[in-house]
Amino acid sequence: MSKDPTTAVAFHTRLSTELTNPGDDQTIIMSDVLTNAGGAYDSSTGYFTCPESGVYVFFVTTLAFPNKHIETMLLKNGHRIGMLISGNSDTWGPSSNMVIVTAQKGDHVWVKVNDHYHDTGTVLHQGFTTFSGFLLH
């Protein structure tokens, strides 16, 4: 819960189109915003900016297409706080991670491709690749 019960901080986003030919270290911008209470998620950059200091919970889910592989990272101010490996099988390759982290007001949290660890072509499914979070306390 937020320190001020009248001010909620929570967001839930997903890819609006399939991720095709990702670049090395590319930020994965989830531009389909389903919830953005508090307005801290920027769908043009893919960054969540912590509006206040506290403990936050973040979730990332990815779904790789069959026979595709991608590694993604959850970053806070450029430092890895979570990692996912999806795919590389002949069926859909899901992956998810939840992170609980202390953050300061103004900290940035986002999802990106891990270096060069990805295939080419259509890699991530838009409807099932999500980035969400909320202020716990």
TrEMBL record:
InterPro entries the record matches: C1q_dom, Cerebellin_Synaptic_Org, Tumour_necrosis_fac-like_dom
Entries under Pfam families matching the protein: C1q
Annotated Gene3D superfamilies: 2.60.120.40
GO CC annotation: extracellular region
PROSITE patterns: C1Q
Protein's name according to its UniProt entry: Complement C1q tumor necrosis factor-related protein 3
Major subcellular site: secreted
Record's subcellular location: Secreted
Ranges for domain C1q: 4-137
Species of the source: Mizuhopecten yessoensis
Lineage summary: Eukaryota, Metazoa, Spiralia, Lophotrochozoa, Mollusca
Keyword annotations from UniProtKB, A to Z: Secreted, Signal
PANTHER family found in the cross-reference section: C1Q DOMAIN-CONTAINING PROTEIN, CEREBELLIN-RELATED
